[in-house]
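Appendix B. Raw example, untouched.
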Amino acid sequence: MGMDEQNGQPVISVTDLVKEYRGGVRAVDGVTFEVRRGENFGFLGPNGAGKTTTILTLITLLRPTSGRAVVCGHDVVAEPDRVRLRIGYVSQDIAVDDTLTGEENLYLQGRLYHLDRETIARRSREVLEMVDLTARARDLVMTYSGGMRKRLDIAGGLIHRPEVLFLDEPTLGLDVQTRRRIWDYIRLLREREGITVFMTTHYMEEADQLCDRIAIMDHGRIVAIGTPSELKAGIGGDLLTVDITTGRRGTRDGGVQPDGDGGLQDLLLTVPGIKQASRASDGRWVLVADRGEEAAPAVLEAVGRHGLRVNYLAMKKPTLDDVFLHYTGRQLREDEGQEDFSRRRTGLRRARM
């Protein structure tokens, strides 16, 4: 399971990976996972989780403190040049030259991989058709829209036919229509090229739609990994979101109100059917219930009996947003993608030092 059907090996294999910075800061703390050949693999994590450091290690821009990472059959430390020849990397920052045409950008990228003119011309036609830019190939990139530039950027990452394409936030900041078009191109990569895609995103809908499997990282460790369906099912029930306010009213049974978050959590866990209770970053409580429709009125009754007020209560089936919140205690926001880019630039500077 998880192995390349051709040679019995995963296309990416990470074992006990550790990266420790000066001062004893352990950004990656014993990470182990595999990526199967031909799959779309999602890598999610809040800022500071260690996701950026892991990716920079896989693309050979950082050296790990210990552990091992093998990409396309080559160790990222012992054989970095061999790894680089077999991967493509499309960063969050669009890396195309506005003063060149689309064709010229692809020619430049192809020469960086030592491709001859004939090969570049043939492959340029193929990738431009894939990303629907054939008609604009000879126009200056400065005349392209943001979505067109991103599509050209992806085409550049494909010119040398990599075995693995790393996509860092491929649709961040784009409008919904353009995002969906890029989703279609990403799906085509596997269908036409048999390529493995390793992607990060801050759009949970994107991860749910595109990724065969997803790894969630937090505090330097992989806290969950599986298919979107497996991760959602792993929460183990319906989700109740409850906003509770303590008041000055007396309790119905003459007792006292629960003391602080710990006391309120203990109270909520006494409600029949409630399996888990955790406080979200917005102050609301997220409850996991076997049968949400039966647990909801029981929560209302228990809270009211102890002199508390429910301002809001909602029930739903788990989504990937809920999975992320469940494992990290935080919601993944779009603006974190912009912050993550600044952090990644810092990581690249460190790698060059």
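End of appendix B.
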